[in-house]
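Q: Can someone sanity-check these two? First one:
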Amino acid sequence: MAHRTPPDLTRTLAHADAVHGLYYLLAHALFRLFRDADPLLVLRLPSVLATTVTAGLLTLLGTRLAGPRAGTLAGLTFAVLPPVQRYTQEGRSYALVCTLVVGATYLLERTLDTAAPRTTRAWAGYGAVLLAACLLHEFAVLVLAAHAVAVPREARRAWLKAAGAVVVAVAPLAVLSKRQSAQVAWIGGLGAGALLSFGAMALLGCACAVRLPRALVRFALPLTVLPAGLLMLVSLVKPLYVDRYVLYGQAGTALLIGAALDRLTRAGGARRAAALLAVGAALATLVPVAVYLRTPDSRLDDATAVDAAVRAAGADADGILYLPARRRIWALADPDAVRGLRDLALDRTPAASGTLYGTEADPSVIRARLLAARRIVVLRDPAGQPLDATSGEVTKRRTLAEGFEECGTRTVHGARVSVYARRC
């Protein structure tokens, strides 16, 4: 998406992935600016830098709310939280959203704490940063619920104006993405894992909040609980909850943990020893998690391994077939892996059709192309995944079963790469 021209990108966003449009444009600009650099570095480095900035902003916020040591511990805690580590590594918008949400929270606290908390410039700055977060991912708007709890009554009218402006400005994006809601049909209902994770985080936050400065609790605890909790409530009607959509809630958790560690280490005696022991045990537990998060097995699939398997299987093949069509995405990141292999089902490329994965030919055309091939590389989902019931996908599977035999399959993380040959 980021390598498409702005007109092609805009045309695609009109009916797909509008929620990520600003991020795609940002990535497009970075690729243009650093065209000779390693593309994976260009894609991922913004997330690394964003998380670094977020940790610094949390340090500043924690310092204002509970003192310099609490702030420093909050910033360090944020950096080692497993969800934060995961999305720091990925070329996605979520780390940048965290930076902007925490930046807006910092500006809100500073605005409320100044001698003239209702100056137009201060509220405009807060609103602009928060709006940027919402345009990168619209679920950042849920942080307004947390901010509403933190704003005292005397500043509520000014805050409501700023918050209302953000909501109005992001509304067109929300309306457009609502029309594209079929794209998130893959999100299932709330699972036990998500509920347990949220419950554990909420309980930890509440436990840490005991005897902490009221000002810090007023900002941190709602940030930990409300965005994720509200998205879970919405998901009871329309499943939308994915933890990365509210990753910024981890900032509230880090603030609470940092301040609680500061209080415990100041207590001295047995409490201090217990706190240090708990920190040591937590770090020892996080080490294997951190190592795992830096392996391909920690992700749903391994596109690099898929590309290598395709290169090996496609040496003497006539073409390639994706089952289902959305698996074409594996080849889009590294087109060299399929160079020389005809895409047997493709009608129009993703860029030309203004779609994410391209459009495919009529089932009868796909069947004719398959039967004209001698040897085909087939990219498939892992075994046991549901099969798409569209006419095109049914035709692909039926033609392979009737006219070809499977010569071999290589299973890589998240995918199967098979070679099919025509029956004599």
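And here is the second, same format, sequence then tokens:
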Amino acid sequence: MKRKIIQTSDGSSTIYLEDLDEHYHSKHGAIQEAYHVFLQSGFFPFLKENKAKQVAVLEIGFGTGLNAFITFLEAQKLGVDVLYEGVEAYPVSMDEINLLNYSEQLEAQNLHADFLKMHQCEWETFQSISENFQLKKRKQFFSEITDNTVFDIIYFDAFGARVQPELWEVSIFQKMYDALKPNGVLVTYSAKGSVRRAMLEVGFLVEKLPGPPGKREMLRAVKKA
């Protein structure tokens, strides 16, 4: 499958899959989308509402590591302890990682080594990226997830339903619901009606939020206690 690094509208890079006409991040701004959907709509509100100083995050689609890296950066600023698990069936190569400009665009060149460490560290076991950020990368298909009441937040960042509809079905969202603790939150860039209905079917409380640049809406789902 043909892949190339492209620049998105906010200057940050992403990977484009030509055969699928699919991007790893929004072409309207990779960093803008990541902050809006996962940090501003998920991570920050959860910390505020729960007065949490420790949080467990599951990312569905570790990909380029952008979501993990910005969560790492914000955890350093806030002094929050993060246990971060990223699921990825098809890891991105280091040749591609070395072409991404996230550290530069985030003005975090002094922490670029930590971004690289996220990709170079071992899989299937927790690795310390910093004193307060532990990362476990899991090489598995989303259908193989069996966690039960483990996570506070889920970043659902799978490829879109147009190219991988099986990742947005009721069976997958049941796994997400089961994986969350009571009051846990799932956020995703998608706002499709079928996705919202699948979330509702498994028991989530679902709300539409304003989307990132280029998208009118997104979804946030809560597993109520």
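A (reply): Looked at the second one. Residues 30-50 form the longest helix (21 residues). The longest strand covers residues 180-188.
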